[in-house]
Amino acid sequence: MAILYFVYCCIYLLNMTTLRKFSDISYQFELEDVNRLRLDKAKLTGKVRDYNCNQGKHVGQKKQVKEDVL
Prior knowledge:
Elements lengths: L1 H44 L25
């Protein structure tokens, strides 16, 4: 009887971790949908910022150069 209970607990824990992974994936898809809708709304209102994908900074910003102070 104890062995059956142990197997039941293992299956239960396995299902919970699997469900958690799937819920994280679905949550990520929901975030992408929300971000896509926000971008579409921004395009319609003309309030879109162009971001440089490589640096994550606004294209209009100048690079800050650090100068050594003597």
